[in-house]
Specification:
- The complex is a heterodimer of chains A (393) and B (360).
- Chain A is of the alpha/beta class.
- Chain A has 2 domains: 329 residues, 3-Layer(aba) Sandwich (Rossmann fold); 45 residues, no CATH class.
- Chain A is 58% helix and 11% strand.
- Chain A contains 16 helices and 8 strands.
- Chain A has an 8-stranded mixed beta sheet with strand order 3-4-2-5-1-6-7-8, sandwiched between helices.
- Chain B is an alpha/beta fold.
- Chain B has 2 domains: 254 residues, P-loop containing nucleotide triphosphate hydrolases (Rossmann fold, 3-Layer(aba) Sandwich), CATH 3.40.50.300; 54 residues, no CATH class.
- Chain B has an 8-stranded mixed beta sheet with strand order 3-4-2-5-1-6-7-8, with helices on both faces.
- In chain B, β6, α9 and β7 form a beta-alpha-beta unit.
- The radius of gyration of chain B is 25 Å and the shape is elongated.
Chain lengths: 393, 360
């Protein structure tokens, strides 16, 4: 007996005001599959949709025709809108290439000579190749780009498998605060004015700081870093502006966050954490997608009765003729299997109810557990159908 | 039921004798923190002392052991005897082992690290003032990875005043597989960036430990397609990077209740016999006529058979996944699915499994 609302993904994606759907949640809960299924469903319901995935499983990527990582949305074959190929509705998909995205930002914001200096700088190369954190920045950057083109009715984003949910939301503001940071100015100082002006401004001996940094990093790294920072200087304003704009985009009307989870304690704890964080940042939460929920066609047979029946069959099996004795063993197995299923369902229900009692206002949609992974469009359609919810036609 | 318990092989010595640093990774959702904790417990049996390191700031260790959030400080979280893990109750088993845990706070680790290597004094304060600490730990996250791997190596190599190792083994709950090789290789990267100077030597030293036989990188997986694929890719990457591969930890293994052959047999011909068996088990109710009782079990038949088909499909998939894992030719350990999640008792049970299978 639950009082929570049911989430209708159809209502969300059918609403022309919805322009961005962000799927977030901890790793291993089916986030990428959910994003792909929502994108496909939206396209087949008539919207011009693009799915931005971060790190899809190989076969899922192949099913969407993503054989190479080229950082550009590609049309997914075999997908048309409700009125056929000439009507509205299409699906594009792309995989994020984080280094290339970073390179493109540099090229777009610096004159060719400066851009070359940055791209060749070893510090930049190492940073852009994907230390932890870069992926979050670049995912946000790419989302901003896709939105800015205006070519899409709907953008569905799969978030990076972050070390914590926070990184994803923090990326733009962290970049902002870094750009305001005095370390940048200190590093810039020797390259610009030989340090004197900055020294007075900061009340710190710039020579002492750079000297210390040199001691820690070795002077060659410090030189590389200073060159890098100096070359990036002209871009910082642009960078910051973009980061702020993307953050605002996430808060704006037209964006909807879906938290994805599985009915397990850890996954729902992460989900709860994410729901709190979204609320704190006033990000628009549309609801919770609960993947891999188990069900049964025979709910009337409880685990206890199934166990008891299995036990009686196992005990009496020997008294029968061979044919029926085999069937008894099988039936006992079926009953044990069912009992196990019922126990899983009870546990999942309890975990879900705990979440609901804390977050009664968060709409939920459940997606049943499938035996294997999804790796074709039909599988995605099936999931999309389950996600559709009450607006189902 | 036959075949539900895999017999645990008796082996000679533990498989990872001589390994000081155990790095545990896996795809998100595979339970790598749980497995890392169980391994730290297993390695601590027989009067040993181990350190369990958490690097992602999730406080998953505190959660598992049911204690308050861990500060940035090595503190004892559990004691363990060999008997608790199913070993002999006599001899070494009587001495309790100890598990310590450390949740690394990156900022404090950076300051400690700077303090350890350079007597910075005022300069250190100046660095803090200009936001270097923020810069280094958030914007240049490579630095974060250097600190984390550096701390783990330091703990693994640390010696007490008596010249003995501070810990017999260090277990690190590392970032997920997708980021693992870069995480472990970050010191190579930094050593390449800083071609001279103290950071360079430090990075070289850490890499030396990570690539030595004193380190083993274990990957946790489930018997599902994506985690197995990531595990196979992960070991390939580790090998390519020259990092020492450890074992395959298969987590949340469910015992097969029925095999595919049994399910196939149930179809068609045997449907009626199964129905009779259900009636006989009392599921047809207490009606006097056989026909009514038979009719009463009819609504159960299709759902039960459907569940059996799903189960068989899953067992067949798991069989394929096992074959892919076996092709890695690495020691492999199987941990059972604990229904209702892992509590402290469950953790000791998993540790016992690891010990029985030779992982510790």
């Amino acid at each position: 007996m639950t009082t929570e609302q049911e989430l209708s993904v159809d209502r969300l994606i059918d609403d022309p005001r919805t322009r961005i759907v962000v799927c977030c949640g901890s790793g291993g809960v089916g986030k990428t599959t959910t994003a792909a299924a929502i994108g496909l469903r939206a396209a087949e319901r008539g919207r011009r949709t693009v799915v931005l995935t971060i790190d899809p499983a190989r076969r899922l990527a192949q099913s969407m025709g993503l054989t190479e990582l080229d950082n550009t949305p590609r049309p997914v074959k075999g997908v048309t809108g409700p009125d056929g190929p000439d009507g509205p509705g299409e699906l594009h998909a792309m995989m994020l290439d984080m280094k290339r995205t970073f390179d493109e930002v540099v090229i777009a914001h610096a004159d060719p000579e400066r851009a070359r200096a940055i791209l060749e700088n070893p510090f930049y190369q190492s940073l852009s190749a994907g230390f932890a954190g870069t992926q979050e920045y670049m995912a946000m950057e790419k989302l901003g780009q896709l939105r800015a083109t205006g070519a899409w009715d709907l953008i569905v984003v799969d978030t990076p498998p972050s070390r914590s949910a926070l990184d994803f939301l923090d990326a733009p503001s962290r970049l902002g605060s870094f750009l305001d940071g005095r370390i940048i100015r200190v590093l810039m100082a020797p390259a610009k004015v030989g340090g004197r002006g900055a020294m007075k401004f900061l009340n710190v001996g710039v020579g002492m700081v750079t000297g210390t940094l040199g001691k820690i990093f070795g002077s060659q790294l410090l030189t590389d870093l200073q060159t890098f920072v100096a070359a990036m200087d002209s871009m910082f304003g642009g960078f910051r502006e973009r980061a702020d704009r993307t953050y605002q985009l996430l808060k704006a009307e037209g964006t909807a966050f879906l938290v994805v989870a599985a009915p397990e304690r850890d996954a729902l704890r992460e989900a709860a954490y994410f729901v709190d964080r979204l609320a704190a940042d006033e990000m628009p939460l549309a609801g919770l997608v609960l993947n891999r929920v188990h069900g049964t066609g025979a709910p009337q047979l409880s685990a206890e009765r199934a166990h008891a029946a299995a036990q009686s069959l196992e005990e009496n099996g020997a008294e029968h003729e061979p044919g029926q004795a085999d069937a008894d063993v099988l039936a006992a197995g079926l009953l044990r299997l069912h009992a196990e299923r019922m126990e899983v369902m009870v546990r999942e229900r309890r975990t879900r109810d705990r979440f609901v009692s804390v977050y009664p206002d968060v709409p939920i949609v459940e997606v049943p557990a499938l035996a294997g992974d999804v790796h074709d469009l039909d599988g995605l359609r099936l999931i999309g159908h389950r996600l559709g919810g009450t607006a189902e036609d | 039921m036959a075949g539900t318990e895999e017999p645990t092989e008796a082996r000679g010595g533990p498989d990872w004798e001589g390994v000081r640093l155990h790095v545990v990774s896996g795809k998100g959702g595979t339970g790598k923190t749980t497995v890392a904790a169980a391994l730290a417990l297993a390695l601590a049996a027989e009067g040993r002392r181990t350190l369990l390191i958490e690097v992602e700031g999730r406080q998953g260790i505190a959660e598992l052991f049911g204690i308050a959030a861990l500060p940035y400080e090595e503190r004892k979280v559990a004691t363990v005897s060999a008997a608790q893990l199913g070993g002999p109750a006599k001899g070494r088993g009587q001495v309790n082992g100890e598990v310590f845990a450390l949740a690394i706070d990156t900022e404090q680790a950076l300051l400690e690290y700077l303090d350890m290597f350079y007597k910075l004094g005022r300069a250190g304060k100046a660095l803090q003032k200009v936001g270097f600490v923020d810069f280094a730990t958030t914007i240049a996250p490579g630095v974060r990875d250097v600190l984390l791997t550096g701390k783990a190596c330091e703990a693994a190599r640390r010696k007490g005043p008596d010249g003995r190792r501070a810990y017999d083994a260090v277990v690190m709950d590392a970032p997920p597989t997708g980021r693992l090789t870069r995480f472990l290789n970050v010191n190579s990267e930094v050593a390449g960036l800083a071609r001279f100077g103290p950071i360079h030597s430090q990075a070289q030293a850490v890499m030396g430990v990570l690539k030595s036989p004193e380190t083993a990188v274990h990957l946790v997986t489930l018997l599902e397609e994506m985690p197995v694929q990531e595990t196979v890719d992960g070991f390939t990457e580790l090998r390519a990077a020259g990092l020492p591969t450890g074992g395959v930890m298969v987590n949340m293994v469910r015992p097969p209740v029925l095999d595919a052959a049994a399910v196939a047999a149930v179809h068609g011909d045997h449907r009626e016999e199964v129905a009779l068996a259900l009636v006989e088990a009392g599921l047809g109710g207490r009606s006097r006529t056989a026909a009514t009782r038979r009719a009463a079990v009819e609504p159960l038949l299709d759902p039960l058979l459907d569940q059996a088909r799903e189960h068989a499909e899953r067992v067949a998939l798991e069989h394929e996944q096992r074959a892919d894992l076996a092709a890695l030719r690495l020691p492999s350990y199987e941990l059972p699915l604990l229904s209702g999640g892992v509590d402290l008792g469950g953790l000791y049970r998993l540790a016992g499994e690891l010990k029985a299978q030779g992982a510790a």
